[in-house]
Design goal:
Number of strands: 11
Helix content: 25-40%
Radius of gyration: 21 Å
Mean pLDDT: 97
Strand order of the largest sheet: 4-6-5-10-11-9-7-8
Low-confidence stretches: none
């Protein structure tokens, strides 16, 4: 007999709507799993069992009333959705993975949290993140490292490593995550999940910590394409004051509907060489990409090899902007000495970036956006770009961290994840698709990127791959 965590988020939501499943029962199931498994997994920085139980009770009352009155409920009503600890939930500790903010309790919700509340979801807690989300692993000085449940000696990636570990191990059905340089797609790859980095402006970053660079966005992590698309529907929508707004779907359409649509015949570019000079791509990552290209061709798509010139200029621009963002994080003066070496290194470097250099870096992003947009626009352009998500299989815990030499650490991070940040710079949507596992049984993700504003095509194509090679039934040993 299946356990509750075997159900997809949509199956759970349907059970709640019909009355066959109680939000209270579902919440208690996940709280018990967190209590039993999370000390090993490192998925949560802060657990909120009291708040979760209250929200579950309220959700159950609302579901009962909706059935009695014949009202529709939001698509994930009563379903647990943890929030990454880079985002603020009023009344709940928000550390951003830093000892400098260990006791910080915000008084307002981020807009994305407000959308989750309005959607009737349940907050199990705040998921683990590295300090300010800066590296692509999830190790800090507040909690155990986040580990992929496929091999507990290996990192869950980052910076949404806690969110990915929670979903991959069955501690949550889906999770909110964020992505500024690959932070949804990297942990999705190493944890065997589907993750969506939406288009710039698809999801609000307000009201307090707007990312002025446009690199970062919230997005969903899930086991299935349909679950992720549905959570994207819940999270999406510009808010007053947002600097960007992605093109809306046609009236009446949802991203969830696109998970049930045929994508049609697409022209897909296959990229296997990293766009960062001197970066080697592991054979497992190349094989995953070429195997996926063959699968796509077998599904009727036109697949062509593509190479992008390796460009030091884009790497320099990203490093400058990333450093400025690190330097902009609000840290109380007495907290500076509590920061981790990589954070201090990036903040020092960011403080040295001139206004004109920052502007030149942002201009480099815009020219890259234009170049890729020109290549993706019809007639004759590509619909989708396929590539590895990462340049190597999941790394061991601690392997990428180098407190003694943070400059070398930052270089190692870039070499591990050379494909992902391109689409943060351009604002295009990109997804990790978990269709491949290597000989050691470790997930090896591939990435699909599309035109700005066109998450719908990526969702439809990913769902087609999921149907051709299902992955959700493949679970790690601790499941």
């Amino acid at each position: 007999m299946a356990d509750l965590h075997d159900l997809t988020a949509l199956e759970q939501a349907q059970g709640i709507r019909s009355g066959e499943l109680s939000p209270v029962e579902l919440t208690e199931h996940y709280l018990a799993r967190i209590e039993r498994l999370d000390d090993t997994l490192g998925a949560f920085l802060t657990r909120t069992p009291d708040l979760a139980r209250k929200q579950a009770t309220d959700a159950e009352s609302e579901a009962t009333a909706a059935r009695r009155e014949g009202r529709e409920l939001p698509p994930l009503h009563g379903v647990p959705v943890p929030v990454k600890d880079l985002n603020q939930v009023a009344g709940v500790r928000c550390t951003m993975g830093s000892r400098a903010l260990a006791d910080h309790v915000p008084t307002v919700d981020d807009h994305v949290v407000g959308k989750l509340r309005t959607g009737g979801t349940i907050l199990l807690g705040k998921t683990n993140t590295p300090e300010f989300g800066l590296p692509c692993y999830t190790e800090n000085e507040l909690a155990p490292p986040a580990r992929t449940p496929w091999d507990l000696a290996r990192s869950a990636g980052g910076s949404s490593g806690g969110a990915a570990a929670a979903v991959a191990a069955g501690l949550a059905p889906v999770a909110h995550a964020t992505d500024g340089g690959g932070s949804i797609r990297i942990p999705a790859s190493v944890c065997g999940l589907f993750g969506i980095k939406p288009s710039r402006g698809r999801i609000s970053g307000g009201p307090l910590l707007h990312d002025i660079s446009g690199l970062a966005t919230s997005g969903p992590l899930a086991r299935t394409v349909a679950d992720a698309a549905t959570l994207l529907d819940v999270l999406a929508g510009a808010m007053p004051g947002d600097p960007f707004a992605a093109p809306a779907l046609p009236p009446g359409e949802t991203f969830a509907e696109h998970a049930r649509r045929d994508p049609g015949r697409l022209r897909i570019a296959c990229l296997t060489e990293a766009p960062v000079p001197g970066t080697e791509v592991h054979a497992d990552c190349r094989t995953a990409t070429t195997d996926t290209a063959a699968l796509l061709a077998g599904l009727g798509h036109e697949v062509e090899e593509l190479s992008l010139p390796a460009d030091d200029g884009i790497l320099l621009a990203f490093t400058r902007v990333w450093s400025v963002l690190a330097a902009s994080r609000p840290v109380p003066p007495e907290g500076e000495e509590l920061l981790m070496p990589l954070t201090r290194y990036l903040r020092d470097r960011g403080a040295e970036v001139s206004g004109t250099d920052f502007a030149r870096s942002m201009y480099a992003f815009r020219m890259l956006s234009q170049s890729l947009a020109d290549g993706l626009m019809p007639p004759g352009g590509y619909d989708v770009i396929l590539s590895p998500t990462l340049a190597a299989p999941p790394a061991e815990v601690g392997a990428l961290r180098n407190d003694a030499d943070p400059q070398a650490e930052f270089a190692a991070i870039g070499a591990f994840s050379p494909f992902t940040a391109v689409y943060n710079a351009t604002g295009q949507p990109a997804v990790n698709v978990p269709v491949q596992w290597n000989a050691e049984g470790l997930p090896i993700g591939v990435m699909l990127a599309g035109r700005y504003g066109d998450e719908a095509t990526l969702i439809a194509l990913s769902a087609q791959l999921e149907q051709a090679r299902p992955w959700a039934g493949r679970t790690p040993p601790m499941w």
